[in-house]
């Protein structure tokens, strides 16, 4: 018999004990179910509230030896169990305590393949396993996501680079809204992709626990479905020249991975929501990831940093010539100290991109490091990924000597098996040296930040820098990110631009970079966007002219005890409340249209709170830098109307009012 009904008890039952036709796995609340079939091949279907969300979709793995998961699907054993526990996040980008409640079903087949199915109230995932004694070569993996007719999706469509294959990408695209069946098999996307079904149910398609294996891309099929595809293993590489050289694959193998014969493969995940506000707070990808591999993570200290590259170090009202030099970075250190930033970033230019020991002649790193120590501010360094790889051991020792406990590495732009292993090797080496790291030109974390919490955040997002040369980071794009890219983990958008423009006024200008959207939207991003290391990209010289605003921005934490999404609509608006200790930070953002919020505080306790409210000024629809800061007392029974201008936002800091003795 090749179909079974599977209970949710903790037991292993031989297949002969099952006598009904369709295996079914239910979520803990019984509102989501997965039906599994092994009749002709292995497939699954997902239902939410009895509505089909995923139609029968095939699961398969093919090895180069001709072995396939789908060949001879004879079940050897079935194990199912329920888990109800709590994960304590080493670096809590959403919340410190993460409930982990699910039902799981593991099927092993006599052909040494297996599949693990896991079902939560707000998501579904499966992963393939193998039990071969020797190493294996994986030719391909089949992962289908077949949706009902009429489904649409927000799709990060990859634009192919000249002279490179489609799998070379910085993972920095817009998310146009498309009907799924309009996407042909020539359209490639990276994950997450957010699918919208008729009736409003949404499903974020992505992966988690990516290790020693290529990342999952998705492509269209001309139907209402997505098909997984993977970069084949790189056999030969060439160095692409330029200011920031990188390795590019010039020849690939006819397989996607060579790996251990006994292992589990990455989770294929579906984040499920009935209402939009359930998406940005979903922890599924984090929960699926391998637990922290560091014996001690207590040395990891997230926080906020300055970032000078986007504004091209175009300072003013200073008595020195600005640029990549000692005086400029000491100025940044003073700014960081005054407004509560933990560190400064020394971006590209402090050294030769190809040699981390060839320091810019205008830089005295020892003097900068000593000055930073005297101010209680850390320094951080940008690196080119290819150079860091080549000089890793000696570079990390030098960073330690300078007291630089955070680095960025950039221009990777791949996620084939070899490159995925690069991330792991670099993160582990940095952890051994007690150095935190951020990857740029990188695929989204996909749970890696749980396994290696010293990887605080990643790029993999079309962020603030694009304002310097394009009109792409619109408010609509900014309001898409919490429901798409952010599903896969923290993202380094680099908010905080202090030059602000309306959509009609926005013009890309190098060195005088403006945001498309209001000042308060830039402020709100520090609360709305997940990132334990937030990079302030604004101009410090402008910030010094507005100390009240900068003090408020500088007071925002980057890790959180809890997160609540109070209201949201994909690409439309979002209101997020986050708690840190006794304090709350509430922020809202809106897309192209103005939006009014009637803000309730019923999530507070009975204590009074002192509120600092920063919101769009009355003229922000014409002068986007217009804002107003007010103070008042707040209780849980109050309601406050807040108007957000087009491309606007707001931020409220609530500090618990201490009783007078």
From TrEMBL:
Signal peptide as annotated in the record: none
GO molecular function (one): hydrolase activity
InterPro entries listed in its UniProt record: Aldolase_TIM, GH, GH-type_carb-bd, GH97_C, GH97_catalytic, GH97_N, Glyco_hydro_b, Glycosyl_hydrolase_97
Residue intervals of the Glycosyl-hydrolase 97 catalytic domain: 316-461
Record-annotated Glycosyl-hydrolase 97 N-terminal domain positions: 26-291
Keyword ATP-binding: no
Pfam families per the UniProt record, alphabetical: GH97_C, GH97_N, Glyco_hydro_97
Obligatory cofactor(s): Ca(2+)
UniProt entry tagged with the keyword Ribosomal protein: no
Quaternary data: Monomer.
Protein name: Glycoside hydrolase family 97 protein
Species of the source: Mucilaginibacter sabulilitoris
Lineage: Bacteria, Pseudomonadati, Bacteroidota, Sphingobacteriia, Sphingobacteriales
